[in-house]
């Protein structure tokens, strides 16, 4: 069932709300940035995301194809969400570990799909996932 979560960076300067159904799954990617930051994401369409505060506190990082806008707080450095454009349009990528009001049990029970972003093979799981 979809639920509205509040999310933020560590210092609280960047805040948002997102409507998610964590039981529908999350994902982890093995691309270079996701591996280095141990990213755990859920995606939502634009109508399920509401930015509440901190636009002036965000800094953006892009690399490779520059399709994904990796956003982070310029004060505490935490990446609480980002956005990108996919075949079905714009989406927001929510870092589920930055949801302030998520129950640990919800994260434990959320299915995880592993994707091979390192090789631009988004429909397949990487050979090794233990480090993700």
TrEMBL record:
The organism's place on the tree of life at top rank: Bacteria
Ranges of residues in domain CENP-V/GFA: 5-123
GO molecular function, a single term: carbon-sulfur lyase activity
Stored InterPro entries: CENP-V-like, CENP-V/GFA, Mss4-like_sf
Entry keywords, A to Z: Metal-binding, Zinc
Family recorded in the similarity comment: Belongs to the Gfa family.
The protein's name: GFA family protein
Native organism: Leptolyngbya sp. NK1-12
